[in-house]
Amino acid sequence: MTADLPGAGEQVLLVGLGNPGPRYAGNRHNVGFMVLDELAARVGGKFKAHKGGAEVLEGRLADRRVVLAKPRSFMNLSGGPVSATAKFYKIEPSGIVVVHDELDLPFGSLKLKLGGGDNGHNGLRSITKSLGTKDYFRARFGIGRPPGRMDPADFVLKDFSSVERKELPFEVDRCADAVEALIGKGLTAAQNTFHAA
Questions:
Q1: What is the pLDDT of residue 41?
Q2: CA–CA separation, 139 vs 42, rounded Å?
Q3: Is there a binding annotation on residue 137?
Q4: Which of 29, 50, 100, 121 is catalytic?
Q5: pTM listed for this prediction
Q6: CATH 3.40.50.1470 applies to domain 12-194
Q7: What is the mean pLDDT of residues 16-45?
Q8: Does 160 show up as a binding residue in the annotation?
Q9: Which SUPFAM superfamilies does the record associate with it (predicted)?
Q10: Is the pLDDT of residue 2 over 70?
């Protein structure tokens, strides 16, 4: 196993961030949920409510045992369900991959990383606080900056534009591929493949 592989050998927790309910389903902030839904389709199963406060699905991806999780709380409170789910499945923070929207990357760009700050992302802030560490993996899905003087808090709760929506299925698919590469081949190999693209 390579040193930069999430959860070396054990099962991995893949978390998608978003807000629950149909009202938020198409929002930029919910792209983490969209990627998890794509990964769930690849695993072949349905999410089920879990006592930890998330919708979960267990299965296999990239020859690894995985737990897919979508917190049922609002974005700003993601930490509780993530840490409770990790504890239940006995998964250390180093075995967690969080998929989230990223304002500081142009739409459709993708960055994989381990650790780092929350960059003003309240979902990440909540997870870091609940886990007691920032040393977990992230798949950062670029959503771009808000136009003009629009407040970023409003921008993330808007749906993707019609132009972006045409590209969105391809970008979601590519992000799911990147997550699979990350857990199957490690961070460096996945970055070499997907950061150059």
A1: 97
A2: 18
A3: no
A4: 29
A5: 0.96
A6: yes
A7: 96
A8: no
A9: Peptidyl-tRNA hydrolase-like (SSF53178)
A10: no
CB 106 within 8 A of CB 28: no
Annotated ligand binding at 89? The verdict is: no
State the pLDDT at residue 141.
97
To the query of whether residue 100 is one of the catalytic residues in this protein, the response is no
Predicted local distance difference test score (pLDDT) of residue 1 = 42
Please give the mean pLDDT across all residues of the chain: 94
Phi first, then psi, for residue 171 (nearest 5°) are -70, -40
Boundaries of every domain in the chain: 12-194
